[in-house]
Here is the input.
Amino acid sequence: AESSDLLTGAIEKLSKEKGLIVSCVFTMRFEKKINAVKKLVESGKLGEINNVYFGGQHPLQYGRRPMWYFEDGKHGGVINDIAIHGIDILSYALNLEVKEILSARCWNKFAEKEPQFKDCGQFMLTANNGAGIIADVSYAIPDGVEFALPYYWKFYIWGTKGTIRFSLNEEKTYYYTEGTTMPTLLDEAIADVDYLTDFYDVFNGKDNVILPMQDVLKATATTLQIQELSL
Here is the structure.
């Protein structure tokens, strides 16, 4: 954790000294599905969130990605690359912060021609409210299926009063609450702006933004700490 803290601290310090804006393309914050789940959680209908799993599996696209991607020291790590988006959603949509990193592992399986490239990553966390979080962020989507996979970025969330399972690519999402066997259709919520418009507002010093710089630095620091444990 020490080296990740030093890195994010140095980035924050330099950005302040130079008057720079630090951002990351967290486009899931602007997805109507994510914002609908955020509203559902804030409504209290699911109760207190206690169990979370998310799968951020991606296609490897070997031979189509630039080959530097697979060179030592160029990629930055599968957890750093993919999991950061899920970590951000824990905070943004579920109001959970990572308190403890219990375990993390990275290994090579799918990139057979690049054995040094660790293309699989999993980890287990404890949130600030005691909730358990388990995640897989591997380059495991079969070649050809790509980002059309129905369960691309899939989340399972269990609260003390209800549960919801959703993915970005599914057309309709349902959730269950205590006292009934029938599911309820989730009403999707369109974000007022897109990522680039929001970034422009951050750049111009506006306060009412969806992705403030501090959230980017926080997600970066947490994700790098998880990845360090896997090394």
